[in-house]
DNA sequence: TTCGTCATGTAATGGGTTACATGATTAC
DNA sequence: GTAATCATGTAACCCATTACATGACGAA
């Protein structure tokens, strides 16, 4: 309960990764950066404080290896700390995965949300994809407008830059269109298959573990 | 003299725009955001403080309209403030345009530097383009490596994201290749044309003013 | 006269990086 | 035994956003 605001994108990313399997910070960061690939890279300086806070909020718990043969006290061994989700953490993850507000249309939020699409409800996936698309279309609109206004008095490099930007975004829109198309047909198929007891949910199955 | 560090990208952008023509903050911000189009958008909350600091550093000066018919004091009229570059400011701009360190390979820095390419020396342009390209190729490399390592145990959405990222970057690399090619042939042409008194400089001409 | 946009500013806050400090483990 | 890399952490700083406060000016 109560807001205790998570620090944006990192919270979701960490909870999402830890849901797949428990991990220690160092590994977490690597997985994080390969997961987000081109979009983002986090440093320890932001990861560890984040973990600390998630711990304080009871969303994750540490699982220290517990060296059974060390006398008793003097446990400041400073070794790996494996983190895993608590029940509350799983709940929170589910919540973040489902909310998908306007933040998930932005570059950052979108990337992370998308990375966990296989754990996201189909209807939410669709909402995010469509939100993202209209966000991008807004941008295209305004850039095109500005481009039309200033058209003449602009040097060729600036123009080149604008164009490259436009094309990149147009490309992403096409990509989104394709994805949205796929999602839609999948949804229709599933609707046809399971005529009865429709629980609005359909994720590709929990990956066990 | 002395570092008095400029706050990253904004300084260059502001100096660059003010070099083209004097402006007040409000307009500056609009031009800024259309100039940078897809890449970036600044808010007043960062622009005004920046102007303030540039002013304090003597890089720009205010040019208040001076209402000639207002009694004398009581000039707190609060109206438009037009900023323009000082001599020192022009110097600083030139310096920023020429330095082009590693920061200008990164997304942010690159965009802004590129936007002012028509005021940048040809050799510096080439350095930036090539720096950018190798920066991107590094990223491609590491992402591809990570992709090869984890290949199997990764869900289709994550894969889709990675791929889209890769393709975007590959596309930018191709774009850069084209630009670099053009720059090279231009340089060669110029070398052939002006056989004599070579001053290592060649900008498309100072736009007068 | 009021509404929308132009115009300038600031304080609180946020979210992140850099650089550093430290220790454990592995491979040579 | 030493170098590289794994692993954890923190403090100082940086850059920018948000939300707010203020006011001018033109058009309806």
TrEMBL record, chains A, B:
The keyword Cytoplasm does not apply. Signal peptide: none annotated. It comes from the Bacteria. Keywords: Coiled coil. It holds the Pfam family PadR. Residues 14-95 form the Transcription regulator PadR N-terminal domain. Residues 184-209 are annotated as: Disordered. Residues 126-153 form a coiled coil. This is PadR family transcriptional regulator.
């Amino acid at each position: 309960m109560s807001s205790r605001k998570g620090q944006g994108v990192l919270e979701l990313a960490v909870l999402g990764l830890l849901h797949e399997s428990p991990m220690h910070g160092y590994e977490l960061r690597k997985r994080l950066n390969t997961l987000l690939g081109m979009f983002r890279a986090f440093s320890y300086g932001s990861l560890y404080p984040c973990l600390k806070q998630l711990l304080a909020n009871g969303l994750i718990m540490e699982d220290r290896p517990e060296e059974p043969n060390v006398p008793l006290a003097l446990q400041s061994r400073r070794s790996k700390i494996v983190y895993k989700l608590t029940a509350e953490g799983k709940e929170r993850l589910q919540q973040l995965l489902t909310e998908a507000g306007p933040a998930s249309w932005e570059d950052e939020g979108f990337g992370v949300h998308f990375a966990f699409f296989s754990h996201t409800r189909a209807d939410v996936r669709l909402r995010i994809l469509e939100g993202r698309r209209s966000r991008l279309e807004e941008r295209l609109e305004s850039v095109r407008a500005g481009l039309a206004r200033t058209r003449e008095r602009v040097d060729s490099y600036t123009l080149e830059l604008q164009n490259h930007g436009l094309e990149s975004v147009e490309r992403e829109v096409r990509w989104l269109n394709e994805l949205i198309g796929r999602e839609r047909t999948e949804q229709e198929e599933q609707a046809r298959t399971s005529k009865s007891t429709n629980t609005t949910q359909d994720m590709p199955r929990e990956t066990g573990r």
